[in-house]
Amino acid sequence: MRNAPIDAENPLRVLGGHRYSSKLPWYRGVEGAPMEVEALALIDGVRRELLQSRLGITVDFHSGFGWQDQIWFPYAKTNKAYPGIAEAYAFKNLLDRTYPYHFYKIEPQALNYTTHGDLWDFLYDEYLEKGPADGVYLPLCLEMGSWTWVKKNPLQIFNIQGHFNPMKNHRMKRTLRRHNTFFEFLVRASLSPQAWAQQNPEQRLKHETLARELWYD
């Protein structure tokens, strides 16, 4: 969904959001119109849980083209580094140390493409403005590589849902089980913010420098 009132820098045509027609994917909606009901419901739900919290993690699950499962973080609207890269890097480092053989690729979404109207960019910027001054919010997007499902069942390419979903029931269950370890890690990371989210100025500078070297330079 590309429905939030955010304009991106150099977005991809159509894929990055457009206002041509609601019959095409990635439609942004009418310019100046209120956000769609489902977008507002998501935003209201996250606001209730997030804006009073000193630590928040959300995960948006997507099935996207590719072979590898990826974990993306903001921004989707720009290639510039976002204010929370020190925490994002510390989170990645904690996951790497806890599960050194995990199969996720972790990086900013904008390294893949930028989009208009990203709801998580909208919520992140709102948290910076209205959330606790010392709070940390990490919005993640888990992009599940769907080409593996098509490889195992090539005929599903002829079904529009088959481009993005494991169509067979046993494969759906296996896909869900695949991420159980990551779910548990998220719970433990939320309960232990001192391991990654609570950083003194020296730690933040170090992690920000390493993050820029890894993802932006």
Explain what the structure shows:
The protein has 217 residues and is α/β, with parallel strands linked by helices. It has one domain. It contains seven helices and four strands, in the order H-E-E-H-E-H-E-H-H-H-H. The chain has helices at residues 37-50, 85-98, 119-130, 147-152, 169-178, 180-191, 201-216, and strands at 55-64, 70-73, 105-108, 136-145. A four-stranded mixed β-sheet has the order 1-4-2-3. Helix 2 (85-98) links the parallel strand 2 and strand 3. Helix 2 (85-98) crosses helix 7 (201-216). The longest helix has 16 residues, at 201-216. The mean pLDDT is 87.
- One letter per element, helices H and strands E, the order comes to HEEHEHEHHHH
Oligomer: single chain
Task: Compute the number of structural domains.
Answer: 1
Shape: globular
Number of helices: 7
Question: Would you report the number of β strands?
Answer: 4
Radius of gyration, taken over Cα atoms and rounded to an integer in Å: 18 Å
Distance between the termini: 29 Å
Strand order in the sheet with the most strands: 1-4-2-3
Backbone structural class? alpha/beta
User: Kindly state the mean pLDDT as a whole number?
Assistant: 87
The low-confidence parts are none
Q: What portion of residues belong to β-strands?
A: 5-15%
- Helix content bin: 25-40%
Largest sheet: 4 strands, mixed
